[in-house]
Amino acid sequence: MRKHQNHRRGFTLIEATVSIVIVGVMFASALSMAGASKMTRHRRALSDRAHVLADALLAEVMALPYEDPDEATSALGQDASDVSVYNAKVAGDPEGHTVRRDWCDDIDDLNGWNQQPPVNYDGSAIAEAAGWQRKISVDWVKTDNLNAKSNVETGIKCIKVTVCYQDTFEITMVALRSRAR
Ligand SMILES: [Ca+2]
Ligand SMILES: [Ca+2]
Ligand SMILES: [Ca+2]
């Protein structure tokens, strides 16, 4: 009878040990799944915010005239007619902005635009924008191959808006704009 009791006690200890190991494994697995789920939610939140920031900026750029209304130019970027105007506005801006997007008078004035943290169209601050950056590049593209850049005016511009969060997340949205539109 005593022999049987010892055997029963030993079995119970093994059972408890197995049970602890199983619970431990399940707990570790649950923690791992919770971590992955949290990471997925974080990336989705970053993606949603990045798309909102990119959409807004792309819409602003696309609303600008295809080319400078004051002069004919053969280069991308700010034009001779813009520089003195923009410099005067920067000098007179009490909030000390660099060139604001609502001062630009054609799409490619924003070529090379790079702002961190991003601000609104009128230069006002965007809430919780720390860590975010927005960049714009504008190129002419070939009419027979819209993926290929051109060094000369073709009547079609490719606008790329890149939005990144620190060094962890980045999206680029692309739009084409023709002179004819
Ligand atoms: Ca211009
Ligand atoms: Ca101009
Ligand atoms: Ca220009």
Order of helices and strands: HHEEEEE
Question: What's the mean pLDDT score?
Answer: 86
Question: How many alpha or pi helices?
Answer: 2
- Low-confidence blocks of residues: none
Oligomer kind: single chain
Structural class: alpha+beta
Enumerate the distinct ligands: calcium ion
Query: What is the helical fraction, as a range of percent?
Result: 40-55%
Describe the structure in your own words.
With 181 residues, this protein is α+β, with helices and mostly antiparallel strands. 41% of the residues lie in helices and 22% in strands. The protein has one domain (47-178). The chain contains two helices and five strands; from the N terminus they run ααβββββ. It is elongated, with a radius of gyration of 29 Å. 14% of the residues are buried. One calcium ion binds at residues 68, 70, 79, 81-82, 105.
Quick description:
By secondary structure, this protein is an alpha+beta fold. It has helices spanning 2-63, 80-92; strands at 114-115, 132-142, 145-150, 156-165, 169-178. Helix content is 41%, strand content 22%.
